[in-house]
Specification:
Blueprint lengths: L7 H12 L18 H14 L8 E4 L7 H7 L5 E4 L4 H11 L1 H7 L2 E3 L13 E6 L8 H10 L4 E11 L27 H10 L3 E5 L7 E6 L8 H6 L12
Parallel strand pairs: 1-2, 1-4, 2-3, 4-5
Antiparallel strand pairs: 5-7, 6-7
This protein binds S-adenosylmethionine.
Length: about 250
């Protein structure tokens, strides 16, 4: 069922199905994370980007955009031709269009996609104002992380902001170290030390900062190409992502 038609019973079944399954399982919601948090994990990316200044005329690259749980909000917000996604599993995008977004929004907003599994961010032939990689480096071994970070500065200008997450020592759960993992690890996660993330970013010419923005399982980072565009302590204190009235995220 594509969510576009159906009796009330069928619609109810569809809604129940979207909440079912374990992270990593084969439906477009569960594949990208806990299906019960699909809404929240999309909204929090959109909130973070707009808090940090994303406006409708900006360009936005979503690395590992999955089933567009954030992408559907960003697409709606941006002017046409501003949203770019990289996603090796393009069935996720097809299912999101069928069940969440609709072909009309795609036609109007003209997003562009690449199926690269090698973080070929330069393949679109342009730089981006915002680059997002939510729960991507939670799945990369150390070398893959280093190689992909090295490709990012080429698609950034002085004021671009690169926002990404990683599992670090600030997060709960016992995960293997990224340094002992190779390539893409999924649906399991690997962990880094914050210091390691900073150092690898610095080696590629990026200045990274850990953000206090709320994430239920990972740590948010913001990286820029110029030291002077790092956030001040005062700005950092405002980037909290506080979640109110939802007991799941106390
Ligand atoms: C945990 S999901 C996160 C999806 C999305 N960023 C979000 O927050 O909804 C990880 C995504 O990375 C995609 N992926 C797998 N291999 C990848 C690669 N080599 N480069 C980029 N993305 C990849 C997966 O297909 C999946 O959609």
């Amino acid at each position: 069922m594509d969510g576009s038609a159906g009796t009330p019973g069928e619609l109810e079944q569809f809604v129940e199905k979207t909440k079912a399954g374990r992270p990593g399982e084969g439906n477009y919601r569960a594949y990208v994370g806990p299906p019960g948090q699909y809404d929240f994990m999309g909204a929090t990316q959109f909130r973070l980007a707009t808090t940090l200044g994303l406006r409708e005329d900006h360009s936005y690259l979503d690395i590992g955009c999955g089933s567009l749980r954030a992408g559907k909000l960003v697409l709606q917000y941006l002017l046409p031709g501003r949203y770019f996604g990289i996603e090796p599993n393009d069935w996720l995008i097809d299912e999101a269009v069928a069940s969440e977004i609709g072909a009309d929004l795609f036609r109007i907003k003209q997003p562009r996609f690449s199926q690269s599994a090698e973080f070929e961010v330069a393949s679109f032939g342009q730089k981006f104002d915002f680059i997002m990689a939510q729960s991507i480096f939670s799945h990369t071994g150390l070398e893959m992380f280093r190689d992909s970070i090295a490709k990012i500065p080429a698609v950034m200008h002085d004021q671009s902001q690169f926002l990404f997450t990683a599992v670090t020592e600030h997060d709960t759960g016992r995960m293997p170290r990224a340094s002992g993992a190779e390539g893409w690890v999924y649906p399991g996660c690997v962990r880094f030390r914050v210091r390691e993330v900073m150092r690898i970013c610095r080696e590629s010419g990026l200045f990274a900062q850990a953000l206090p923005w709320f994430h239920p399982r990972q740590t948010w980072f913001r990286a820029v190409t110029k030291r002077r565009f790092r956030l001040s302590e005062e700005q950092l204190a405002q980037v909290s992502g506080t979640v109110m009235f939802d007991p799941r995220f106390k």
